[in-house]
Amino acid sequence: MIKLTIDNSNFINKIKSYTNAVEELTKPSVVDEVAKAAFAITGEKFVLDLDRYAAQNPKKMHHVYEWGNVGNPKARLFVVERLAILNGSLTVSYSFLPSRTPVPVPPEMLAPGRTGKSVQAKNIFRDKARVMEEGAPITFSSQRVLAFLGSNGPTFVAPGTIINILNPGGVESKNAFADYMVEWYSMNPNKIMQSSGFYEALIKDASKAINDGQGVAGVIKAAKALADKVGGTIKEIA
Q: Quick check: 99 and 128 in contact, CB under 8 A?
């Protein structure tokens, strides 16, 4: 009778290496990369969906685009921000950008009046998006003669007059952007990620790294490379 003792330590070490590499897919080193990719993938879809929604609902979203360009991707006055990632949990927020285009002057105000004068000054409402989104009443004292188009035609206001604007941007624009964003992100990210092909690509790349004997380091490297490829380095989407 021959008794053999097989040294299976090499086999066991390989199994452990495979197991550790697979388990790494559920750890922060990888799930945080997935979250970075998710921000880029879902964020790009969010801004495009908002552009379409804004074009269809200008009274609600006119304030987060430059004047006369509601829904135009090149005229957005907002950015979506990636604030934090922890153990795969992603925190998303937004900031408003300053407007850079003059407030439109109605044609009626450009024609010379009885005195032969017309509106010449073109003002820029820099905080247009933020002020109209907040919707809080505005009160200020005019520093010079102000002109606006009222229901009875052009109206002029003398310097020092107290101006009260109850609903800057209109009632519909108040909190409209924030409400849309909360609703959109509560409904869409998971199904977008499921249909994006990202998970399948990650499994494929991680499997290749494991089969090539790259172990845990290879899985982490594959996850980071794939996340970077889809925009994982992006922290703001405008």
A: yes
